[in-house]
Specification:
This protein is of the alpha+beta class and 154 residues long. The protein has 5 helices and 5 strands; from the N terminus they run ββαβββαααα. It folds into 2 domains: 3-77, Roll (Ubiquitin-like (UB roll)), CATH 3.10.20.30; 87-150, [2Fe-2S]-binding domain (DNA polymerase, domain 1), CATH 1.10.150. The chain has helices spanning 23-30, 87-94, 104-117, 123-129, 140-150, and strands at 3-8, 11-16, 49-52, 55-58, 71-73. It starts with a strand and ends with a helix. The model has no long low-confidence stretch (mean pLDDT 97). Bound molecules: FE2/S2 (inorganic) cluster (2 copies). Its EC number is 1.2.7.4. Keywords: 2Fe-2S, Iron, Iron-sulfur, Metal-binding, Oxidoreductase.
Length: 154
Amino acid sequence: MPSISLKMNGKTRTGEVEGRTLLVDFLREGLGLTGTHVGCDTSQCGACTVHVDGMQVKSCTIFAVEADGAEVTTIEGMAEPDGTLNKLQQAFQDHHGLQCGFCTPGMVMSLAKLIEETPKPSEAQIRDHLEGNICRCTGYHNIVKAALAATDQL
Ligand code: FES
Ligand code: FES
């Protein structure tokens, strides 16, 4: 089996994968990073969103071997090393941006990328950016509020 090496949340991690192994399966089963969720089999829900070399990627849409040598950030890499939530995560907590929480890792990873590129996104930009992330609890309103709060617009 091919061996791959990634810079995962700042640390080098290696593992053996089959050519057909999806990145999300390698993260969850190979590396134990179960914060990245699988909510569909059709690349629609966004629960598996991570950052690969600075790009927002649905990790069920690429093979693990395609990420060989890449820098990958998952939800586990978002908080401070001592566990303190980052500003966006804290805003989700403060504004009830989650109900069951299943979509939350993908929402946070998606919004983090938006905020990195657009530090003060409008509500319309936030809603547009979340087009690829489904919240089956339909908690969108508070998710948008959390994003506005995290960017000091609430
Ligand atoms: S599990 Fe990847 S988009 Fe749904
Ligand atoms: S909080 Fe339940 S799916 Fe979004």
